[in-house]
């Protein structure tokens, strides 16, 4: 049995653009815990990943532009919420590996710079910034492997949980927290790649090639991405042609354009 379960936080609930960043208790918008489960008759494997809005105080309210500017609170307020957020995560999950995929230019640049600064100094956090759009420009999505290489050591040390014959044999040691701005599209692509790496190890223990469930894996992660995106943004996720097929295509880019227009209408009107 192969399953994917996403649990959305009931705190800081709300839709895209209207709810961003963190509240005074460190709860962030669009916070989702996703558990990938692979179950055999005698053993169950579980991998948990999390996503969530950049844990600082910021907003991006609709103003008729396609992508409104981001408004950041002062650094002390951002520092306070970020510290609370990561303290809460540490209590629940242990050490946190943060993968931030925001742009280092345009409207995202100021937030990226501050998050890199504050997140890079946070306790119990291994912080990895990677400019997704820059690195994957011109459909060079194979460059995601470069990101995975940067955090492979952390992925290995975090591992996953193993329950054998009803007893916990191994516990996941920490968690990867991935974010972009919406925590929907770029985030889902990277989370699915991390999940695939772990799944390959688990299947190898049973002499099974991951190619045997490749279609199931891709469709499940894509359908899950669409369900989360519809709830937060009003449309299916973007960039899912890569998740579903393993390749970025012109057709997928055109479909993203259509969904981006619908998102604009839903979020603004």
Give your account of this protein's structure.
This protein is α/β, with parallel strands linked by helices and 269 residues long. It is built from 8 helices and 10 strands. The strands form 2 sheets. Strands 1, 2, 3, 6, 7, 8, 9 and 10 form an 8-stranded mixed beta sheet that branches. The protein has a two-stranded antiparallel sheet with strand order 4-5. The longest helix is centred in the C-terminal third of the chain and has 20 residues, at 185-204. The radius of gyration is 18 Å and the shape is globular.
Report the radius of gyration as a whole number of Å: 18 Å
Largest sheet: 8 strands, mixed
**Morphology call:** globular
The average pLDDT score comes to 94
The succession of helices and strands, N to C, reads EEEEEHEHEHHEEEHHHH
| Distinct helical segment count | 8
Total E-strand runs: 10
Give the distance, in angstroms, between the N- and C-terminal Cα atoms.
42 Å
| Poorly predicted regions | none
- Helix content, binned percent: 40-55%
Structural class call reads: alpha/beta
- Give the percentage of residues in beta strands: 15-25%
How would you summarize what this structure contains?
With 269 residues, the chain is α/β, with parallel strands linked by helices. Helix content is 43%, strand content 19%. A hairpin with a 2-residue loop joins strand 8 and strand 9.
């Amino acid at each position: 049995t192969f399953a994917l379960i996403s649990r959305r936080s009931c705190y800081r609930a709300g839709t895209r653009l209207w709810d961003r960043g963190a509240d005074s208790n460190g709860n962030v918008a669009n916070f989702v815990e996703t558990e990938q489960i692979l179950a055999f008759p005698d053993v169950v494997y579980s991998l948990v990943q999390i996503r969530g809005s950049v844990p600082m105080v910021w907003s991006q309210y609709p103003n008729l532009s396609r992508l409104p500017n981001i408004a950041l609170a002062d650094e002390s307020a951002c520092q306070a919420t970020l510290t609370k957020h990561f303290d809460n995560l540490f209590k629940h999950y242990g050490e946190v590996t943060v993968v931030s995929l925001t742009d280092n230019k345009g409207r995202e640049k100021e937030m990226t710079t501050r998050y890199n600064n504050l997140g890079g100094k946070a306790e119990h956090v291994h912080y990895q910034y990677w400019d997704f759009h820059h690195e994957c420009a011109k459909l060079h999505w194979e460059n995601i492997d470069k990101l995975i290489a940067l955090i492979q050591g952390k992925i290995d040390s975090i591992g996953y949980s193993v329950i054998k014959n009803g007893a916990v044999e191994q516990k996941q040691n920490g968690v990867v927290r991935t974010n972009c701005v919406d925590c929907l599209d770029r985030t889902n692509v990277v989370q699915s790649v991390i999940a695939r790496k772990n799944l390959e190890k688990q299947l190898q223990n049973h002499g099974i090639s991951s190619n045997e469930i490749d279609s199931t894996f891709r469709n499940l992660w894509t359908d899950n991405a669409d369900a989360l995106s519809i709830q937060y943004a009003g449309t299916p996720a973007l960039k899912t042609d890569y998740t579903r097929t393993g390749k970025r295509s012109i057709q997928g880019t055109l479909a993203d354009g259509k969904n981006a227009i619908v998102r604009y209408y839903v979020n603004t009107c």
